[in-house]
Amino acid sequence: MSAFPQFDDERQQVEDVLEGYARSQVLNSLALDLISAQGLAPFSRILTAQLAEIFGSKASVLALLRGGQVRIVHLHTDHLGISGRALRVTLGKGLSELCQQQIQEIVRVVPAVEVLGTGLADELGWESFLIARLAGENGVPAGLICLVDAHANSPESTQLLRYLTSYVTVVLENLRRVVQVTQSSRQWAETFDSITDFLLVHDEEGQVVKVNRALAESRRQHPADLVGARACDLFPAQNGVTACPFCSSSQQAAKREEFFDPATQKTYLISSSRLVGIGEHGRQTIHVLKDITEHREAERLYRELFDNLQEGAYFSTPDGRFTEVNNAMVQMLGYSSREELLAVEMPSRFYVSPSQRKSTVQDLSRFGVLKTEEIVLRRKDGSLLQALETGFAVHDHAGNISQFRGVILDISEIKRVQAQLKRERDFNTQILNNTQSMIVVVDTAGLVSYVNRKCYEVGARGNGELVGNRLEEIIAPSHRRILKNAFENTLEGHQINNLELSLVRGQEVLGKFSANLSPMRDESGGVNSIVAVMTDITDVATLQAKLVETEKMAAVGQMVSGVAHEVNNPLTAILGFADLLLESPDLPDSAREELQVIMQEAQRTKEIIQNLLSFARQNPVRRSKVQINKILRRTITLRAYDFTNRGIALIERFDETLPEIEGDGHQLQQVFLNILNNAYDAVCETGYEGQVIVETARTSEGVEVRFRDNGPGIKNIEKIFDPFFTTKEVGKGTGLGLSICYGIMREHGGQISCFNNNDGTGATFLLRIPVQAQSMAFIAGAGI
Q1: Spatial separation of the C-alpha atoms in residues 455 and 459, rounded to whole Å
Q2: Cα–Cα distance measured from residue 693 to residue 672, given in angstroms and rounded to the nearest whole number
Q3: Residues with Cβ < 8 Å from 133, sequence gap 6 or more?
Q4: Which of 21, 78, 412, 485 is the most buried (most CB within 10 A)?
Q5: Strand partners, 409
Q6: Residue 21 — pLDDT band, cuts 50, 70, 90?
Q7: What are phi and psi of 190, to 5 degrees?
Q8: Distance between alpha carbon 312 and the CA centroid of its chain, in Å?
Q9: Residue 602: which residues within 8 A CB-CB, separation 6 or more?
Q10: 709 pairs with which residues across the strands?
């Protein structure tokens, strides 16, 4: 204790005054430093450094509360023994927990272990935190100021810290607002420059206050270089106006909606606004120039396309009125102008029947799309228009139908052509289907693509079976090579005529046909298909063969007739003189025997001559009503003895209801006897029990007679009726018998044929004789 206590008090007061003055100087310096700080980071660095110096703390911290979490803005410390990042994390967690305790004290002292934990606090050597709470809204602290192991424990130090806390709170709030304003200003400037439309701000004198980057770049200058220029210099007016061309007069501005800029060669849409009382420039005007060049070009192209469509295009309201039509629609419906057509009420004038419009609206409302549909419309003059309509519905934001859009195609001419083509097609189809020739269209691969009705009538295939198959399937195998060669030649462009082919269906022969193959060409001249026209020549071929046979028989008959007459004269002399010699009594017996041989052979020769004359039809024909069964029984009686002696069974199967026929009984008997003789000779060759069956039957045209034997059959059956052809040994037959039979049957208008039996034994002769014999004049005239 001092010896002069009264002086000690005065000295203490002086020291307090001096200390207060020093702190005041420090606070003034701190205030000046904080005011000069630009931004939160420099502010927090200055504040924490000055607080550590004023209060003599080991470390100082500025922490702000964001979203319930404490964020360390700045930590001022000289301690280098631990990672700053780890310290910040631990410190942030500890201070966050203190803030959640909701303690009302502005300044308080907290042990370091409560904030950092025992381990970290001991490692740092920190004992306590002097914490001052920065005031916020609704009692929630805005942040904390923390001083580690501060030397200021007096009430004056606490008061000073409170004062600093209030001051820092105000400065932080102002700083936050300045930052917001700065950021907002910067963001507005960036937004202003990022707009691609041209922005021009000028004052009442027309001087540029601000332009955005897009406008400046279009003039190849910096935005700042254009400030102070005149608006009319940037956008010269065509009428020589020296003021702003966009707001030279309210009347002009009201009318002017678009502006063409010669500098950019583009069209812009102008919108203007008045800015009053902004800045030191007073009243200002801002013009926004929006580039609509592409829009106008697209609109022009759309208009050109819409108006030049050959199909009628329309827009209509749901209640049935046109809102837009193109020129084709106007012309299609016979109106004089778009305006006249737009005034038409569609349900009553446009459609023939209002129900058509109703059906169209229902489909569009239900499905949203109208698929191509055939409709009938009414022109202005009342005439009808056949058309195809396609459309769709347009909906507004609420999902309601606001408009119908569609396209109408005039198909009146198409319909007329189609009707004409259908008539021509039906006409051609009738011709093709009623022709007597088979018409087949074959592609280049040989597949049938079309056949007419005659192909099915002939029986080549069933309905539809021939199309898609190969033509060669109905051609006889022996003629397929001929068809293939002809087909290849036709593909090369050649015409093939009169190609004889045989058609078959399975194993059945359909007949002979004459085919003409013609190439069909495409637009380039290449062969793309072949038309085969096939005419049935089966009857013609048969008739031609019979005609050839008839001509041959006529020639043979004439030859035989002439030979018979020539031989008959010397033969008569031989028989006469031989007969006179035989009557002579002076004739020796040896000569008489030889004359008997001469007479026998001459008589045999006479019989041959008689057969030749019979073959040549020189004998007159006597016709009358005859009964075939009686002639057959009389003929069988003549040969019954020989058949019985040789053990040959002769079986009669006669139809007793046979009608009488008109014919020569003697000639028919000669035919029957000749066939019986041939059958007798045939069964005798076999050496086993023979059998001959004679049958008669009634037919719709006359009588049918069959001679069936069980002999060895007939070889070379196709030559059996040829004259002088015989299968018998020399001396046993002349080969004229069946030829004579053939001629007799033809003279009676009948037919004779033969065939080997299916069981492999014997042959059958079939005779068909009509009730009324009809001689063939040209045959009779030929002497057959």
Answers
A1: 6
A2: 13
A3: 105, 106, 107, 141, 144, 165
A4: 412
A5: 388
A6: very low
A7: -65, -40
A8: 27
A9: 571, 574, 575, 578
A10: 692
- Residue pair 403/394 in contact (Cβ under 8 Å)? The answer is yes
Strand partners, 316: 322, 404
State how beta strands 438-443 and 448-451 pair. Answer: antiparallel
**520, 443 contact by CB (below 8 A):** no
Handedness of CA 546, 548, 550, 553 (dihedral sign): negative
Length of the chain: 784
Q: Starting at the edge strand that comes first in sequence, how are the strands of the sheet with 128-134 ordered?
A: 69-77, 59-66, 143-148, 128-134, 107-111
- Amino acid identity of 752? I
Helix and strand counts by DSSP (H, E) for the chain? 23, 27
Contact 189, 268 (CB under 8 A): no
Structure tokens at 645: 């002696």
CA 93 → CA 99, 117, 165, 572, 648, distances in Å? 10, 11, 22, 164, 141
Distances (CA, A) of 783 to 557, 598, 619, 620: 6, 32, 10, 11
- Which tokens go with 312? 């009628």
How many beta carbons lie within 10 A of that of residue 234, not counting itself?
Answer: 22
Q: Helices 155-194 and 40-55: crossing angle, nearest 10°?
A: 170
Q: Six-digit token pair at 391?
A: 């459309």
How many other C-beta atoms are found inside a 10 Å radius of the C-beta of residue 236?
15
Q: Is the pTM of this model over 0.85?
A: no
3-state secondary structure 57-100: CCEEEEEEEECCEEEEEEEEECCCCCCHHHHHHHHHHHHHHHHC
Q: Virtual CA dihedral for 383, 384, 388, 389, nearest 10 degrees?
A: 70
Answer whether 232's CB lies under 8 Å from 246's CB.
no
